[in-house]
Design a protein that fits this description.
three-stranded antiparallel β-sheet; ABC_transporter-like_CS; 6 helices; ATP-binding; six-stranded mixed β-sheet; alpha/beta; P-loop_NTPase
């Protein structure tokens, strides 16, 4: 169980979170739903240890590997699609197994025909799919994703979401998905938490 206990965070001289408590289930897709400015990304960053908070505890991440999809793509522009995805595997996987994992991930995001393309030659939406493929191949126990489907057209987004749901269930991945889209939340989430009010409160949907 991953728990947040009595968390308080001040932002612009007022409490964004105050004595905030929540428990998340492992091996589930936990969706954190909220509008722009509701505190989703701040919570994400606090859980990852990237942002300080005034009081409280965030428990359950010790000795666990974590993969992250930020809002920014953070690709290596001088590498091709294959090497960008392989970047997260090189120290832990043999070449044959790496090829298998990467091909499967690129097929899932419909980029298998672009495996040797330089990422700087891809559209913004295609670059985002490279980021998703990189997250898919990670064998980490916890995956954080902040607005991961931005820039994708509706039909493609729905196809990828459908495949990801199956992939995560098969691999028993613990996912924290931050989104403003209720549709994405309803399609992907095993458990949906909606942020509301200030200081922030969670409502389970």
């Amino acid at each position: 169980m991953i728990e947040i206990k009595n968390l308080s965070k001040i932002y612009k001289d007022e409490f964004l979170y105050r004595n905030f408590n929540c428990a998340f289930e492992e091996n589930k897709v936990n969706v954190i739903l909220g509008s722009s400015g509701s505190g989703k990304t701040t919570l994400f960053r606090m859980m990852l240890g990237l942002e300080k908070y005034e009081a409280g505890q965030i428990l359950g991440f010790n000795h666990k590997k974590i993969a992250v999809v930020f809002q920014e793509d953070r690709l290596v522009e001088w590498m091709n699609v294959y090497d960008n995805v392989a970047f997260v595997l090189k120290s832990s996987v043999e070449k044959q197994e790496m090829d298998k994992l990467i091909n499967k991930a690129l097929e899932l995001v419909e980029l298998i025909d672009y495996v040797n393309y330089s990422v700087k030659d891809l559209s913004g939406g295609m670059q985002r799919r490279v980021v998703l493929a990189r997250a898919i191949v990670c064998r980490d126990s916890i995956l954080f994703m902040d607005e991961p489907f931005k820039g994708l057209d509706d039909e493609l987004r729905l196809r990828i979401i459908t495949r990801l749901k199956v992939h995560w269930r098969e691999n028993r991945t613990t996912v924290f998905l931050i989104t403003h889209s209720q549709q994405e939340g309803m399609l992907l989430g095993d458990i949906i938490y909606k942020l509301a009010e200030k200081p922030v409160k969670f409502y389970k949907i």
